[in-house]
Amino acid sequence: MKRFLVAGGCALLLLSAALGWSWQQWNQRWPVGPRYVSQRVRVHSGMSMVALADTLSARGLLRHPSVLVVGARLGGQSGRLQVGLFNVAPGLPVRDLLSLFTKPGLPPVRVTIPEGLDAGQTARLLAGALHVDEVAFLDAANRAVGQVWRDRGDRAGAAAFARLESGLVSEAVLAGHTIPSCEGYLAPDTYFFDEDTEPAQAARRLVDAQFERLDSVLKGPRSPAAAGLSAHELLTLASIIEAETGRQDERARVSAVYLNRLRLGWSLAADPTVAYALGKKGQRLLFRDLECPSAWNTYRTTGLPPGPIGSPGLASLQAAARPDPACRAMFFVADGTGGHVFSLTAAEHDAAVQRYHARREATAISRR
Prior knowledge:
368 residues; mainly alpha; Dna Ligase, domain 1; Double Stranded RNA Binding Domain; two-stranded antiparallel sheet; 13 helices; 6 strands
């Protein structure tokens, strides 16, 4: 009997010690040194509490995995893990860790990419929001576009893209800056990204979205004037339309003007293509700029430039595929009020240009 009491007492002491130790681990923050920092931990769909405990332990965020697992079971929280990304501070008591992972994680990062941005502008915007490297994003996007062309089994499209990439080397020497081959292929839209999104993941998402839009337009009705354009050429034309006007009621007419000029073998004479070649987007062009020896200078060359000058939205893609069939205009110029004047003849166009300059000078004088 005495031995039984002694054994029972020892067992109670051990149980009390174990419970006390567990309670301490459950509630108390454990000390950490300067080498310990907050870490991002992702919980995947279907991840178990045991797997989470092992992950936390391996990363130095949890001392005793069993305490988390047993505590979750006793509290009925084993099946309540939230999927997502979590910011975990070092030294948290197990109680707080369990509470952290059974509530929603970090909210997604919202990034809005407006229509018409060029690849460099898009890269800077994403880099700032996701804290990734701009160059890494552009490199990944270049690779993604090439990969999509190959995956599609479109030999003509893949070959055209390969020619574009090879031509960009000499173009960079002339322009004095690098032109990314992913230009135009980064779909403008509002995106939600996880905090730990890698550059390659973000790039592929934008590229896939633009190809999906391009496909939707190509599968829809196309006017005879645009029927002969390849997917890459359609994207290129759409990017020029996007740069020329933000007005929905003008996009189809701008498209018609450029397709009219292409049909007759005229140069497009599109200012935005020259501005893109010179890195002068949004700046006033000078007469000497129109003489730059770039393949994107549509004053010196006929046909479309080798590639897009920015990322068009869906409306501009649709306008490129379906220009206004009633528009016979060959010219257009800004009217000074946010719209454009469309002209059939050079004489009409010159008169519209004179009116535009007169309006601009009058406005400048009134502001003095």
